[in-house]
């Protein structure tokens, strides 16, 4: 066993190969300092990368993650650059009370030289990437293909999330279904995220009818607890979709659940607010316009007379919460065109990983993105 080990990397983004390296170090060391070294020219902040790794290893004893900004160029042939890089690492360790390391764990050729600079031994781990055939380069080149290898906390925040909301019978499910079908050709693992509140309503009504066979929809009594369960389950479904695919298209969310709670129980009911207070980043809300859409009474809807109010509530709430939203109007083709135009641009931006000119690429033999 080593006393103090060090693992360094850009972790841009952190993936299963990185996790394997850190776990290997943790299994052979009392303490492992993971240095996240990122620069200003990269699209993901050092703070985010460090946060994701800290979450991933929160339950692993002895592992501490240290984020350190590093704008120093890379040049493996320059003694001066080697010294500059090593000093950044030394000070990052010193800032957390680590004054010496006796092992450097790495999957790179430079690991031995780095270990020598710290007077430590070098442990080479899976340099050929046979255990996990993934690299940061592969992830950046094709995030969709590499998605299963990205660590869980990073997947949750890197996923592009498009949320479709709207009043009853305003076309939310139709638009969500259309968008999901279109983008599934590009993202085969794109999951359906339906409106859980509707499924919950079916189950609640079935339970009511078991005790009262002649019950009607209006006989159901809604509670704060009902909306709390709906909101929590909606979050879980959305996050499961983000775990599976870098794109999420959801037919409502727990923030919308708070408005339906308001609709049924009034201003002073807060059962779903906890769920809505723990939302990950939203890239865009699409509000389906009720105007020009005939109300379709499928036997489960009760809000025809309040569709205008609900549409306004969505606009007000998303504005107050600081979210990006677009009102989509017109026929289905026009709504799809509006949504696709902006979603394509968001996807292009979210999947772009910038790097400085000195950055090296790791190409794995026999592995294609």
Number of strands: 9
Beta-strand content = 5-15%
How are helices and strands ordered from N to C? EHEHEHEHEHHHEHHHEHHEHEH
What structural category characterises the helix and strand content?
A: alpha/beta
Share of helical residues: 40-55%
Radius of gyration using CA atoms only: 25 Å
Can you tell me the CATH topology of the largest domain? Rossmann fold
Stretches with pLDDT under 50, minimum 5 residues? none
What overall form do the CA principal axes indicate?
Answer: elongated
Question: What is the total domain count?
Answer: 2
Q: Walk across the major sheet and give the strand order.
A: 3-2-1-4-5
Question: What name goes with the CATH superfamily of the largest domain?
Answer: P-loop containing nucleotide triphosphate hydrolases
- The overall pLDDT average reads 94
Please identify the top-level CATH class of the largest domain.
Alpha Beta
CATH A-level architecture of the largest domain: 3-Layer(aba) Sandwich
Number of continuous helical runs? 14
């Amino acid at each position: 066993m080593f006393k103090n080990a060090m693992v360094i990397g850009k972790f841009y983004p952190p993936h299963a190969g990185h996790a394997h390296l850190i776990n290997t170090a943790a299994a052979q060391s009392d303490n492992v300092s993971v240095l996240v070294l990122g620069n200003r020219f990269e699209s993901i902040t050092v703070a985010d990368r460090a946060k994701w790794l800290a979450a991933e290893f929160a339950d692993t004893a002895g592992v501490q993650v240290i984020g350190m900004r590093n704008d120093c160029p890379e040049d493996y042939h320059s003694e001066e650059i080697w010294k500059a890089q090593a000093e950044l690492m030394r000070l990052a360790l010193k800032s957390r009370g680590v004054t010496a390391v006796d092992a450097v764990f790495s999957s790179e050729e430079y690991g031995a030289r780095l270990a020598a600079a710290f007077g430590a031994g070098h442990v080479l781990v899976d340099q050929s990437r046979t255990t996990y055939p993934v690299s940061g380069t592969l992830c950046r080149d094709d995030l969709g293909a590499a998605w299963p290898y990205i660590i869980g906390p990073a997947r949750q925040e890197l996923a592009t999330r498009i949320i479709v909301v709207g009043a009853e019978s305003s076309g939310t499910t139709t638009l969500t279904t259309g968008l999901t079908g279109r983008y599934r050709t590009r993202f085969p693992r794109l999951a359906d995220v339906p409106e859980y509140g509707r499924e919950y309503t079916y189950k609640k009504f079935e339970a009511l009818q078991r005790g009262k066979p002649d019950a009607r929809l209006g006989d159901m009594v809604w509670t704060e607890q009902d909306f709390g369960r709906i909101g929590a389950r909606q979050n879980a479904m959305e996050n499961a979709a983000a775990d599976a695919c870098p794109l999420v298209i959801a037919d409502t969310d727990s923030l919308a659940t708070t408005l339906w709670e308001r609709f049924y129980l009034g201003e002073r009911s807060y059962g779903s607010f906890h769920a809505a207070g723990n939302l990950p980043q939203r890239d865009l809300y699409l509000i389906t316009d009720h105007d020009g859409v005939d109300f379709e009474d499928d036997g489960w809807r009760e809000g025809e007379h309040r569709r205008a109010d609900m549409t306004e509530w969505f606009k007000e709430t998303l504005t107050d919460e600081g979210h990006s939203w677009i009102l989509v109007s017109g026929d289905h083709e026009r709504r799809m065109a509006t949504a696709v135009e902006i979603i394509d641009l968001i996807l292009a931006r979210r999947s772009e990983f910038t790097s400085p000119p000195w950055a090296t690429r790791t190409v794995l033999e026999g592995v294609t993105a």
